[in-house]
Amino acid sequence: MSFFRAIEPEFSRFVMGNAPVKQLATGFDWTEGPVWFGDANCLLFSDIPNNRIMRWTPGAGISVYREPSNFANGHTRDREGRLVSCEHGLRRVTRTELDGTITVLADSFDGKSLNSPNDVVVKSDGSIWFTDPHYGIMTNYEGYKSEQELPCHVYRINPSNGNIEAVATDFACPNGLAFSPDESKLYVADTGAMFDAEAERHIRVFDVDANGGLTGGDVFHVINPGASDGFRLDTEGNIWSSAADGVHCISPDGRLLGKILVPELVSNVCFGGRAKHQLFITATTSLYSVVLNRQGIQRP
Length: 300
Ligand code: MG
Known about the structure:
The protein is mostly beta strands and 300 residues long. It has one domain: TolB, C-terminal domain (Neuraminidase, 6 Propeller). The chain has one helix at residues 135-138; strands at residues 4-6, 22-26, 31-37, 42-47, 52-57, 61-66, 72-77, 83-87, 92-96, 102-106, 108-109, 112-113, 120-122, 128-131, 154-157, 164-168, 174-179, 185-190, 202-208, 214-222, 231-233, 239-243, 246-250, 256-261, 266-272, 278-283, 286-291. Magnesium ion (MG) binds next to strand 17.
């Protein structure tokens, strides 16, 4: 069988037909938040229900990076290479300093607790953008069941003073997010309210102004089947997004170009590896990867 399904002819140039989708590790409950550390030659990812962050090292395999993790979900790295994490359990966004200490970057807005920060991205100006849906406080599975105090917004942490600003307030449940290669656009997925059969299942696109404000916000692409829990872009602006049947590749003009078929429900992806050409895929109980003929935007 092939691991790939081309929808548009150009997709066949993005993949190598003989490159396998490999299961690197399994035995987890819900993997999420992959982030590549090329300088340490390892990948970190969350195993959310088991309250831990795992580390996968080529040749050495799996070890525990942090346990408990406060039910950490999405991760990224800032401009200095530090780990930035969303934590359901303490309803906050944190930064792990190079000496291992943890700094809280955001845990409230308008005097109220955040819901359960889900995914995070850092812009080249140092601003930190994250989504705050309620998934992590709706049940005790991926955090602690708690009262929701705030609507589900997209936030930006100002790099100069650390202030938190709600930059998009019309989402049902914002989830994955990423910038275009030139950072002129921000893509944000809406995966809809938990327990809502008619939930939103699309990615929206915003224009980013010089002051960090957003305009636009039209629906860019509707994911089918499934929803876009998380995604990353390659250097040409194609979006590699989770979906129910694997990873979907979506062109900068919003067309579905093709699919990477994955045997478990995918949550998120990130690029890494020797040439930033290896797509790591977190999918339910496992971590997978596949080498592509594309390179990811890698910051830093
Ligand atoms: Mg997510």
